[in-house]
Amino acid sequence: MVISFEYGGEAIQIYIFKRNRTSLEIQVETSGNVRVLAPKGVSESQIRKIVWNRADWIIERVKYFQELRRYTNKQFVSGETFYYLGRAYKLKIVSVNSIKKQGNKFSSPDIPIIGLESHQNVSIRNGYLCVVSCDNDSNSIRTTLLNWYWEQTLNQVKQRVRYYQPYIKYRPSGIKVRDQKRLWASCTSKNYLHFNWRCSMAPEAVLDYLVVHEMSHLIHKNHSSQFWKYVGNILPDYKWRRQWLKNHGLKLDF
Ligand SMILES: [Zn+2]
After folding, report:
1. Which CATH number is associated with domain 152-251?
2. Entry's InterPro entries (predicted)?
3. CA distances for 102 relative to 107, 125, 237, angstroms
């Protein structure tokens, strides 16, 4: 069943699902759809009343996800903003045809490329995230960027693991970068550390928190108070780093 209602000039569609449950739950999905899971005995007018009382919160969540889609719905065209280590860069697509070889150096009128290697498809130049493209195809630009972030995440994480290793007595069995939609990072029972390829979009301080969090799981395989004490001994200010990820993490995507 779908009900729609107007609130502050906004039309909101609410999808209602009757379930075997005792309480009513309202979910705003990242798509902006609103789902209400209601106990079977609750009438439509009761649902309307409850939804109306939560309308401020619903609108706030819908707007938040609309805003989020501005960050994550990329067309992979010049001018779009991408994050790398917490800094914003404008994307610049450089046509491969515009690149000229002078001796063993490459240059392009699109950007002042200094000593660009021919195999380097992605680079940060003059505050731009430059992608050299031969066909301007958004899918291939996306793949090129994804591979680049993947490689950057692996390099950054390995470097930070080396940095924090003296503080932690056990070593990870290995470090892998993975495409995990929900988790930022994880530690397996066999002590492999897995990191989401999006990690290198986050500020270094947040990346350090993720590394220390997972390395602390080498000692404590849970989120007990001893675990958090262990994290806090290495990063006394870990709480704001963790909160930053909760507040901004969803924007770090494409
Ligand atoms: Zn954990």
Report:
1. 3.30.2010.10
2. UTP_pyrophosphatase-like, YgjP-like_metallopeptidase
3. 7, 19, 50
